[in-house]
Design brief:
The strands form 2 sheets. Strands 1-2-3-9-4-7 form a 6-stranded antiparallel beta sheet, with no helix packed on it. A 3-stranded antiparallel beta sheet has the order 6-5-8, with no helix packed on it. The chain is mainly beta and about 140 residues long. It has helices spanning about 5-15, 60-65, and strands at about 30-35, 40-45, 50-55, 80-85, 90-95, 100-105, 105-110, 115-120, 125-130.
């Protein structure tokens, strides 16, 4: 670990409520890799808020490609707030079986308890935000 990366790790571990924080997806803190079906790059802010850049290829489906990476829950346990940059995503709420389409230009909120898949032949690109989790 270099001095600058050590300093960066220290800075991320300390709250900084009085300064602007800026992160880039070119240097993510975590990544979910779906192989030929895309990826999600994750950045973590000081206060615990996460930003995600999802690039999902045609054929991607949450229950097939992401569910195993999360320990195989029945449905996606996470809420999502985001913006669709490109493509189209179908989101199906498991309890109600209602399906919703998210298209380029849409700002959206998805509650936990869903499955999702890319519609059509175009790559779906999303920016997602997750709130900070309160300490346990």
């Amino acid at each position: 670990m270099t001095a600058s990366s050590s300093q960066t790790a220290l800075q991320r571990s300390q709250p900084a409520p009085s300064r602007v924080e800026c992160r880039t997806f070119r240097n993510p803190d975590d990544k979910l890799d779906f192989g030929e079906y895309g990826k999600i790059d994750v950045v973590q802010m000081h206060d615990g808020v996460q930003g995600m850049h999802a690039v999902l290829e045609p054929g991607w489906k949450w229950s097939i490609h992401e569910k195993p990476l999360l320990g195989n829950p029945e449905s996606c346990p996470n809420p999502h707030t985001g913006y669709c940059i490109a493509g189209e995503l179908a989101v199906r709420m498991i309890a109600t079986k209602q399906e919703h389409r998210i298209r380029r230009g849409d700002f959206f909120v998805i509650p936990p308890g869903h499955d999702a898949y890319v519609l059509g032949a175009e790559t779906c690109e999303l920016i997602l935000f997750a709130p900070a989790h309160p300490p346990a």
